[in-house]
Amino acid sequence: MSQVILGKTGISANKNGFGALPIQRIGREAARELLRKAYDSGINFFDTARFYTDSEEKIGYALGDVREKIYIASKTMTVNVKDFWEQLNTSLSFLKTDYLDIYQFHNPAFCPKSGDGTGLYEAMLEAKDKGMIRHIGITNHRIKIAADAAESGLYETIQYPFSYLATDEETELVIKCRKYGIGFIAMKALSGGLISNSAAAYAYLAQYDNVLPIWGIQREKELEEFAGYIDNPPVLNRELSAAIEQDKKELGAEFCRGCGYCLPCPANIDIPTSARMSLMIKRAPASIYLNKEWQGKMKRIDDCINCGHCKSHCPYGLDTPELLRKNWRDYKTFI
Ligand code: SF4
Ligand code: SF4
């Protein structure tokens, strides 16, 4: 299955969406080349955000002339109506377009609804009425807010982290979205770098016909890998199923997803990476994390004052300080 219909939006996109957060890290021309190559390969869904610095501008520069042939989803982190309009107008101008296919509330701390006093959802409705946006979406990392959005009947798409490491509750959210005709956009389908088998990641998500994975793409090599799945989509065969089972066994349930909800840390510990350092070293090229810079960052774990902020904010119920100490002990054996 190489096409996904995003629920009642009717958007029919290639199953390989382009996550445009990482193009912030490359130059304007390199980004143009990458985006153009993605488009030429058949990728037609691009997800960006006002918050991703110049990502929107680069998309407008690279794909402004083919606007009608692609879908663009952007996001706003605004908490007030004045900024809502300012940000929407800025996004449209940078993207060189007069409409967004999907406009999403970007990871809000609550699910905006009509009559909640913020005026945010009403602003979305007005933008839709004016033709500035075609569909209303929301992104979140917290299962409760995503589930609230699904139940509310107010959102046409929900963007949430989903991979083969998902919990049962997260899988239920996907099934619920399908039932309600809500398009499901899957972020972190490689679980923030923990999953290295992209074929298994793709094949797992291909089981869900309402799920559109957006792959964070920064390099041509990554693009080629996902673009290759357009003509030859990996199928969940015995070999890939075994790889998934092995991964799940290795990671268990108690691993840090790198979502960052535990931040800020008063001891300035880079929790999202430090709390899963042992896994990253074993699963990604270790040299990236063994340099002086990371040695310094990991040493900060000694400065933890046990304030409890991280533990109380972790949506996965992890004992974060203990997990950090465990990773620090393990890290020292590598250096
Ligand atoms: S408990 Fe430690 S690691 Fe967690 S937020 Fe507080 S100082 Fe940072
Ligand atoms: S410790 Fe929890 S909140 Fe912090 S990054 Fe990891 S999964 Fe997210």
TrEMBL record:
One of its GO terms (molecular function) is metal ion binding. Gene3D superfamilies: NADP-dependent oxidoreductase domain. InterPro entries: 4Fe4S_Fe-S-bd, 4Fe4S_Fe_S_CS, AKR, AKR2_Oxidoreductase, NAD(P)_OxRdtase_dom_sf, NADP_OxRdtase_dom. The keyword Metal-binding applies. It holds the Pfam family Aldo_ket_red. It comes from the Bacteria. CDD domains: AKR_unchar. The keyword Membrane does not apply. Residues 294-326 form the 4Fe-4S ferredoxin-type domain. Keywords: Iron, Iron-sulfur, Metal-binding. This is Putative aldo/keto reductase-like oxidoreductase.
